[in-house]
């Protein structure tokens, strides 16, 4: 028999946390939505249909127990809801903020078509934020002492941090090596505060530090130590660097001084938010300038919305396909339009001048190998847009790790991503594993968290086998 607290979707409308007005939120880098109050979170969780086959859970990369913690939330059992949410995710409040739920759990909610999906991401964020506020987020609990063996993790992004926590729980001595001065990777320096406020990330990092995980900041493999030297220090190595090589646009003027890489621009903005001194800061400040962003993914959305908050005179986004074929989140596009961003669909840059971009109108031709209709130039469709700053947001590829790490024996794919065994997640070098974007290519944070969880099991199996082999000898 269904619980009377649930299945309220027929008489209770979908209600996301209210967004601040666009003109208000465009003045700061705070998150755009106000948090749920307890009653509203319980009300919205109770809309869950508790279906027999929970497609929300099936389509979550972490297979979170979504219907169960929604039910607990609806019943007011918030600490239990948090514990169940945290059982499958190392950072539920972060995924609740930045996952594209419209393409994952909420997009596959069975009531979505007729009644509007359950607001899963917003409830997930509320449950864990509430747990932090009430002291329910406990220190990392170490279940055994395996500190005689150590693991070195290269990269402090979501895959590396997730693996670090889970390996520490198993009792291993864990060291994380990262090129930046703060842990978090793109969570810290790539994603703007209006999507993910930085104290949310820093409290997660501090919890890992308190657990005894050692962070080596400002550390570059290949400069401060080779991969071989790290292997000598540790019993296993995890490469979780992510992908940071920006894709380029091949047009005249693409290397001009006013043309910025998206990640450089976002990093500068996030550093300013931390109060850091930003080298050449004026170059990365859009205040009073006309800004053109090239690209249509979520990174492009982060850039246009950052430019608005910096006080740009105008912000345009050029994308070579139409709205229906844009890879970025539909919600992010809507947020950007509310904040005054102009989208120029079916347009691609042809040349970049000192203060303008010449673009070509496009049309969609025949489908390519991937099934998507390929854009092609529209004859006579050139136009010019003012551009004091041009930001390239065309995606990211892998850096040449064998060269950077001084490890030519490290095998990579033709895309430059790390080649690993599909079952063991081990790279071509024994005891070296890979996880996250450096293996799968640029992807979602939730997939990186999943990879961090999966690779932990493989590293644990490998290290236990080493112990057993040593004991047998």
Please, could you describe this protein's structure?
With 473 residues, the chain is of the alpha/beta class. The chain has 3 domains: 8-133, Fumarate Reductase Iron-sulfur Protein, Chain B, domain 2; 146-243 and 398-472, FAD/NAD(P)-binding domain, CATH 3.50.50.60; 249-392, FAD/NAD(P)-binding domain. The chain is 35% helix and 17% strand. The chain contains 18 helices and 15 strands. The strands form 4 sheets. Strands 3-2-1-4-15 form a 5-stranded parallel sheet, with helices on both faces. β11 (356-367) and β12 form a beta hairpin. α2 crosses α4, α13 (262-274) crosses α14 (298-309) and α14 packs parallel to α15 (330-338). It is globular. Residues 151-452 form the FAD/NAD(P)-binding domain. This is NAD(P)-binding protein. Residues 25-135 form the Dihydroprymidine dehydrogenase domain. It comes from Sandarakinorhabdus fusca.
Total count of domains: 3
Strand elements, count: 15
Could you state the CATH homologous superfamily of the largest domain? FAD/NAD(P)-binding domain
Per CATH, the architecture of the largest domain is 3-Layer(bba) Sandwich
| Main sheet specs | 5 strands, parallel
Q: Largest beta sheet: what is the strand line-up?
A: 3-2-1-4-15
User: What count of helical segments does DSSP give?
Assistant: 18
| Class per helix and strand makeup | alpha/beta
CATH class group of the largest domain: Alpha Beta
Q: Could you give the distance between the termini?
A: 58 Å
C-alpha Rg (nearest Å): 23 Å
As a percent range, the share of strand residues is 15-25%
Q: Could you name the ranges where pLDDT drops below 50 across 5 or more consecutive residues? A: none
Gross geometry: globular
Can you give the mean pLDDT? 96
Task: Kindly state the percentage of residues in helix.
Answer: 25-40%
Keywords: 4Fe-4S, Iron, Iron-sulfur, Metal-binding, Oxidoreductase
Domain FAD/NAD(P)-binding: 151-452
GO molecular function, one term: oxidoreductase activity
Domain Dihydroprymidine dehydrogenase: 25-135
